[in-house]
Amino acid sequence: MRKIRQVLRLHYEHHSSKREIAKSLGISRNAASEYLIRFSACGLTWPLQPQLNDLDLERHLYPSDMAGQFTRKTLPDWAQIHAAMKQKGATLQILHEGYLAQNQGGLSYSRFCTHYRIYKKSLKRFMRQIYTPGEKVFVDYAGPTFPIYELGSVDPKYAQIFVGVLGASSYIYAQANWSQKLEDWIDAHVRMFAHFGGVPSLIVCDNLKSAVTKVSRTEPIINATYQAMAEHYGAMVLPARAYKPKDKAKAENGVLIVERWILFRLRQRIFTSLADLNAAIQALLPEINGKPFQKTAGTRRSLFESLDYPALKPLPDQQYEFAQFFKVRVGMDYCVTVDGCAYSVPWQLAGKEIELRISMGTIEVLYKGERVASHAKSHGQTMAIKSEHMEEAHRRFGSWNAASALTWAQTIGGSVAQLLQKLLEKTRGHEQGYRLNIVFKKLVEEYGDQRMELACARALEIDAYAISSLRSILRLGLDGRPSSNNQIQETQLEHPNVRGSAYYH
User: Fold this and answer.
1) Exposed, middle or buried, 451 (CB in 10 Å: 0-12/13-18/19+)?
2) How far apart are CA 88 and CA 100, in angstroms?
3) Dihedral sign, CA of 339, 341, 345, 347?
4) What residues are paired with 324 via a beta bridge?
5) Which band of pLDDT confidence, cut at 50, 70 and 90, is reported for residue 199?
6) pTM of the predicted structure, to 2 decimals
7) Angle between helices 429-447 and 414-426 (to 10 degrees)
8) Which of 289, 306, 342, 448 could be cross-linked to 301 through a Cys-Cys bond (beta carbons 3.0 to 4.6 Å apart)?
9) What is the C-alpha separation between 228 and 242, in angstroms, rounded?
């Protein structure tokens, strides 16, 4: 906006010279002179009417320049105009005609060109990127989705279009997925690498949730599954800065090409499955990669074969298997629960935070980046406990059974085995039997094999089928005394005070 009102105020109210006005307002002396001349010729007088704003004042002094200029609704989207000018055959005149067709009373062609040049000058300068062959692949999703009418469904489902572009050759890959979720995001990368026949060193991606857990300019946190996939292929993930599209300009251009040369051409076809849509996309990819460049020799295909492909890292022997990572805390029973099934971890990790890697068939336990346990994924089971994960005492309890206990008892003696068997028949449950066996072993350690055998024989002889009776026999030393239930030996006592049985008759 011109500084007309300030010039008039300094001239008429402060009686400043044109030189002083120019110096004060930072304009040229000729401009100040022109404003005063035009003001005198337009028929206005100073002081100005209160309702006369700066826009009306400029219209009085420059009627031809201001005609139809300041209607806000007629202003074009200069970013779109700038993007359209990059297309082959585009001119400002053609774009101006299209603009006027939608906006009656819009800018004149001259003002349209002037404003566009001003917009171009306002754009930030950027450094031309030089891409090393095989170094970078730029990945992103296209803005438009594509409808798929599944059989028997009236309403369409919309597929997301994944696009990957190699840096040096601008070679393009595209595929359709149902969503931008992690599993589809990983699947798109795996298929892209297989299509390339190799892996670039860096993956430049946007900051979507499937790729970046925490957005940061200097220290972004990559999604654990995405990071594991990249490491599997020997690549690194480099997220673009937020709101910096030039960081992934290759992806932006690739998306634009896919939208125009693939999606637009397929718009009138009806697809009933994701596989059919992907087949159509794959059929058109060779065409856009084989299209000659406008300003340089060759095609994307030829540059890919000569530059990027020889520099790509070889594919690993096995394709990456999708897996998700979760941080959990181990219970005091040194188990973690996944989908209703308890999986054991080494007992030393009870109460500690660990990381689970869950794939289609495997559950892996990671502690400080190291794998400490692995289980086949349970289907219908409620527990998956490995004995090597158990504490020694717990391992003994878990592996105990009555047969093994009787086998051990037989090594001590037949009476020990016989008494233990009778006591086990009276017990209820695994735990009570285990405890009984432990008591027997402790008594053997305390009194020895021989005394234990004699004590058990004594208990069997008097039908004393209880641990308390066995303890009493050993404690009182009754295991060393002969006894019989059938013979009672009476000791004859001779004493003056002993009357005998005849005394009472």
Assistant:
1) middle
2) 21
3) positive
4) 358
5) very high
6) 0.51
7) 150
8) 289
9) 23
Distance between CA 326 and CA 342 in Å, rounded? 15
**Token output for 128:** 């031309």
Residue type, 458: R
Q: Which long-range contacts (CB under 8 A, 24 or more apart) does 464-472 make?
A: 465/419, 465/422, 465/423, 465/426, 466/423, 467/423, 467/436, 467/439, 470/419, 470/443, 471/443
User: Can you read off the two tokens belonging to residue 411?
Assistant: 């090594």
User: pLDDT tens digits for 336-354?
Assistant: 888 788 888 887 888 888 8
Q: Return the amino acid letter for 229.
A: M
Contact assessment for residue 404 and residue 396, using Cβ atoms and an 8 Å cutoff: no
Let me know: does 173 contact 196? Beta carbons within 8 Å: yes
d(CA 253, CA 169): 13
List the beta bridge partners of residue 341: 338
Residue in 382, 386, 383, 359 with CA at minimum distance from that of residue 372? 386
Q: Return the H-helix or E-strand segment holding 250.
A: helix 249-258
- First vs last C-alpha separation in the chain: 149
Q: What are phi and psi of 375, to 5 degrees?
A: -135, 145
